[in-house]
Amino acid sequence: MQKQLLFLPGPVTVAQPVLAAQARPLINHRSRAFAQLLERVVEGLRPAFGTSEEVILLGSSGTGALEAAIANLFSAGEMLLSCAMGAFGERFAAIARAYGCSVEALETPLGAALDPLALERRLAADAQRRIAGVLLTHNETSTGVANDMAAFAPALRAHGAITLVDSVSGLGASEFRMDEWGYDVVVTASQKAFAASPGAAMVAVSERAWKRIAGARLPRFYFDLSRARKAARDGETPWTPPISILYGLDEALRRYHVEGAQAAYARHARYAGAVRAALEALGFTIFSRPSAHSPTVVTAYPPASAGAKALLELLRERYGIVLAGGQGELAGKVVRFGTMGDISEGDLLGAIGAIELALHDLGVAIGSGVGTAAAVESLAARVTSGVA
Asked: In the chain, fewer beta carbons within 10 Å around the N or the C end?
């Protein structure tokens, strides 16, 4: 089988030491050794969330944790404001509807970030405080858009609704200050910026949210956060945990903190900037607006003479470079280039070179090396300016 490099919005390329950690012998999940593993993982996660609150680990994908957030915080018929910016924000809203919540959409054009003033105006108009919760996306991988989460905090605090944040592809790649900004529930997962394997999701919960959970009436069993909280205080999980995945996440978090959070933020931003520069030089059109670029994924229309599906297939089958296609209404129209995972600048430049070759194969007229040159220039400029 041909070696493949993943440049996806997740799962991502995982470092060999993380994979090796996953191969350790299994242990009893009702043991002191597991309690110590759980404690290390939670302590490694708290700084990334920007919280001193409890962080609950779930054996699931990020979507499972989003479902847990809805099922534990609300009751049937309660009104939620969905601030979706793409397919994954819409999925969050769909989960709420499936549980019987009434969901109002605050519309944002695809490619744009949520307008803080639009959010402020809608919340200010809710004089009767009918909006019980607000659903937000930190980083939308379907469109390659990131929100400025600090900008929403004042309006949200003034209104008082419970705030739920999907930061599955944002946390760890950009700054998040859950406690300072006043967010109530923040969700992420193992297979994104922390560069571990899929299988673990993490939910940070504020004390205000725990009080609401006590009175919420939606059904839950496997995703019962109160039950998970009680078990965690005994160094356990309520159900059989993905022990091997947690071993890997433990090692991935160790590596993350050795690099340092600020360095990780800068690395993701530097890679995304280089990818955007390269793709534009190759005739792609970046989908996200200039003020809304994500540091973890670049979404772009390929040149008109190169179909997205054909380009993705050629890259994967001939060159071993795996990018993602579009979601929802962008399916078959765009490519998505992820910057997360155990990838180096050399890997990045190799992928861009492969894109150039694939475009040549598809008959697209481009100058040789223009994409690679643009990426090198972007990387060099950011290092020179101190963005390393």
From this structure: N
